[in-house]
Amino acid sequence: MLAVADVVSPVVHSPNFPDNLPPFDLILSAGDMPGEVLEFMATKAKVAPLYVMGNHGVGLLREESGAAPYRRPGGCVDVHMRYVEVAGVTVLGVEGSARYREGPFQYKESEYACMLARLTPRLLLEQSRRGRAVDVLLTHAPPVGPSAGSDHAHRGVPAFNAFHRRWRPLVHVHGHVHLEGGGPREHVTPDGVRVVNAFGYTLIDL
What we know:
Layout: E1 2-5, E2 27-29, H1 35-44, E3 50-51, E4 77-78, E5 83-86, E6 89-94, E7 97-98, E8 106-107, H2 109-118, H3 120-130, E9 136-139, H4 158-167, E10 171-174, E11 186-188, E12 194-197, E13 200-203
Parallel strand pairs: 1-2, 2-3, 3-4, 6-9, 7-8, 9-10, 10-12
Antiparallel strand pairs: 1-13, 5-6, 11-12
């Protein structure tokens, strides 16, 4: 899987993409990736990028016609509060970050908890059918733990840790936290969930 978030890597936004990377079956955008870049990847790759919006909303594009102020990137799939399967991998997305000021794509902890609770019937169904509720949790914000930022705006979301304990996804892919701060690219939680920060880009094997 190719995962991207927050900053545009010249490796991804390249005329040689995707041939300049090892083969991948899935593209995941963990938020704050410009809509133009998402559309670029959609036109160049064989699979539609799956994405969630970040707190800055840069995935939205302005309409050239002026008919509407913003639009979603074409050829891509917004997986916020959606359960999708691509190439045999199931993905569940949750957008935005923990609220730190007024604005869109920011949520209180109680709102995140309610969002995830609404998905329980589908997760129970998939768990009974497949033996695992979901393979990949795709979010912009990190869970509480080593991958969270040290400041209030980049804090972890406890509801994601509760999701780990209840549903045990194989991987939790997030963005929002820049790696220049010294945080880990990835770590494994006490519940056995592999947490990967997609900042820039990274390749993930399941």
